[in-house]
Amino acid sequence: MRPSKRAFDEMRPVSFERGVARYAEGSCLVKFGSTHVLCTATLEDKPPPWLRGQGRGWVTAEYAMLPRATHTRTKRESTSGKPSGRTQEIQRLIGRSLRAVTNLPQLGERQIMIDCDVIQADGGTRTASITGAWLALRDCFEWMRSRSIIKENPLRDHVAAVSCGIFNGKPITDLDYAEDSTAQTDANFVITGSGGLVEIQATAEVSVFSPQELQSLLELAQKGVADLVALQKAALA
Questions:
Q1: Which run of H or E residues covers position 134?
Q2: Domains assigned to the chain
Q3: Digit-coded pLDDT (tens) for 198-210
Q4: Contact 160, 153 (CB under 8 A)
Q5: Which residue positions form the known binding site?
Q6: Torsion-angle region of 169 (φ positive above 0: left; ψ -120 to 50: alpha; else: beta)
Q7: Between helices 211-236 and 125-146, what is the axis angle to 10°?
Q8: Which residue among 29, 137, 188, 215 sits deepest, i.e. has the most Cβ atoms within 10 Å of its Cβ?
Q9: Residues at the annotated binding site for phosphate?
């Protein structure tokens, strides 16, 4: 039995609230159970310097955890002057995930900055960030299209992410902190709405895992992402 009493393939309750940041071109408050992340999308009317003159845009991301998102206060990384290795890894993952489903030439020489701020953490902050960020990005593109900044929405597909792992010897999906902190194997899957794989991160935390177990985790992730994409579509309806 999982600590959360969920079935092995059962997600936590997931919700999306769009338009929560008044001044952002796109925003979404995403909740995966007790993990809550505010995602905003900001239009910058120029590309990064290294991309100028190439006729295409860019989507990038920053990720941060608020000081009391966890049980004890975490010092703001901005005060240290440099994000941690974990933070850099996560924000690069978010950016790669969104660029994978974006037609960058259609964006023109512009950049969209995605900010993912974890308000409350209970496992799966990176997967919740990616899933909510897609909605913020989509609404930013629609904001641009409605003002004739771009002719059509550059998004080619949905993208969402879910964590899976082996807990007490069993593959499970959407791990909360109690499960993630003691799992034998921890994995994150980023998958498009059409089923394409964007990224797989899988690590043996306690003992090695087999190819068959990895396949089991992938199948759980495919089901979980399909459910998340359906919820993204419902949020847009």
A1: helix 125-146
A2: 14-236 (3.30.230.70)
A3: 999 999 988 899 9
A4: no
A5: 86, 124-126
A6: left
A7: 40
A8: 137
A9: 86, 124-126
